[in-house]
Structure formats: structure tokens, C-alpha cells
């Protein structure tokens, strides 16, 4: 299967990692048409931000609901149905076989795409070991990616470092979405496996999630435009 061409601007996903709906709306206003794809995660969702999914979709934007679901199968499937009804484009679940299977059932024939989180990009081998895992990051990412593909999951969240090897495993049938992206010179924060936007695209990422370098910039719109320009250049 050949790669699908996505417009460079639509490949940047800005997470609305902000404390309130008012703060999120202010940021959306500042970013204007520089950003077409937003991510809503724990912080905003639990601060009353889920109705923003419908609002943003109504305004022509796409939304990635980064809710990282993981529960018994029936609960996951019913939760996914509800998120599909909101009009979100992507929804994350943790890459456990039962959870992924239930999520695929829940999304059914809707337009929602399920993304499996392989291993959080803030984790290294030591963190996995401390959590009781036998495998290191690269082996666990690979095993979970293979399971996700077999179970009919639509895409993977992975670090940019893993994108190239995952592309070889899953081909172009799955969307690869990579957080852990930092323009040259930006602070890494708690991310341990980072790459620049251009390198992440060259490595095979379809979508880049870039948060703090945009949200904390003096001029968020200019920061987003610079990332879009870097994506456009890397994609040609
Ligand atoms: O600010 P920063 O660019 O580090 O934000 C990255 C975003 O991507 C955060 O919203 C974080 O929750 C999310 N994310 C991540 N690693 C994953 C999955 C999601 O950093 N494996």
C-alpha cells in the first residue's frame, strides 16, 4: 500500500494541554488557521473540555481525543462508541490486546480511528523494568505494534525514534503519530526520546504532536507556522 498524501498543515497536531476551557479557547483563537488538528487529553477533558470536540469539529477542525483508555472490554467498547459520536478523528487506547480488540469493536464502522499507545515516550528501559516489564522499550514497542495490526487498530502512537522500524513492520496501512517532537533548540521537558519535526517526518511519521514548543512560545502562531514549514520541506 502506498503512503497517503496529507497536507503539511494537517500533519501537525497541537495538544490543548491547558487547565481550562477558557484557556483552550484563547489558545485556539491565537492559533487561528495556523492549526487544523488539536488534541484533547486528560488535563482539558477532566476540566470540562470534552464538549470542545464537537465545537472544534463544527468549526472544521479535527480532534484527537487522547484519552488513553484501558479497562475491561465492555467498558472500553462503550466508551469508544461515545467518543465516536462526538466526531473525533483519533482516540488513543493503551496497547493491551483485550483493550485494542474492544476499541475496534466500539468504533465499528464510524469515522473514528483507534490509535494504540505502544510505550509512552517518557519511558526508557529502566522505567519499564521498574514497572515489572521483562522487555525493553524497542522489543515491547515492536510486539505491541504487531498485535495492534493483527487486531485491526488504525494507527500507533510511538516515539519518532521508533517510526522507521515500525513503518517496516506495519507498512502504510497504519497511521504513525509521534509525540516527543522538538524543533532544534527547544527544551525536551520530560520527553526522553525526541527528534526534530523534519527528522520525524523523514523517519516515516504521518502526524506530529507538538505541545509545549507551541503552547509556551511567545508567539504560538509563529511557532506553529515554523513547524508546518519544516514539515512541508521534509515531505518534499
Ligand atoms: O508538550 P509535549 O510536546 O511534550 O506534549 C506531548 C503530548 O503528547 C502530550 O499531550 C502528551 O500527553 C502526549 N503523548 C506523549 N507520549 C505518548 C503519547 C502521548 O507525550 N506516548
Which properties best describe this structure?
236 residues; alpha/beta; 8-stranded parallel beta barrel; 11 helices; 15% strand; binds cytidine-5'-monophosphate
- The CATH first-level class comes to Alpha Beta
> What spatial order of strands do you see in the largest sheet?
1-2-3-4-5-6-7-8
Structural class by secondary-structure content: alpha/beta
Helix content: 40-55%
> What is the arithmetic mean of pLDDT?
95
Oligomeric composition of the shown chains: single chain
Q: What low-confidence regions span 5 or more consecutive residues with pLDDT below 50?
A: none
Tally of separate domains: 1
Major sheet characteristics: 8 strands, parallel, barrel
CATH topology: TIM Barrel
Describe this structure in words.
With 236 residues, the chain is α/β, with parallel strands linked by helices. It has one domain (8-235): TIM Barrel (Alpha-Beta Barrel), CATH 3.20.20. Helices cover 46% and strands 15% of the residues. The chain is built from eleven helices and eight strands. The protein has helices at residues 21-31, 42-49, 51-58, 73-86, 97-107, 125-130, 137-150, 160-170, 197-202, 212-215, 220-235; strands at 12-15, 37-40, 62-69, 90-94, 113-117, 155-157, 175-178, 207-209. An eight-stranded parallel barrel has the order 1-2-3-4-5-6-7-8, surrounded by seven helices. Strand 6, helix 8 and strand 7 form a beta-alpha-beta unit. Helix 7 (137-150) crosses helix 8 (160-170). The longest helix is centred in the C-terminal third of the chain and has 16 residues, at 220-235. It is globular, with a radius of gyration of 17 Å. It starts with 11 loop residues before the first strand and ends with a helix. The model has no long low-confidence stretch (mean pLDDT 95). It binds cytidine-5'-monophosphate. Cytidine-5'-monophosphate is lined by residues 15, 17, 41, 66, 117, 120-121, 157, 179-180, 189, 191, 209-212.
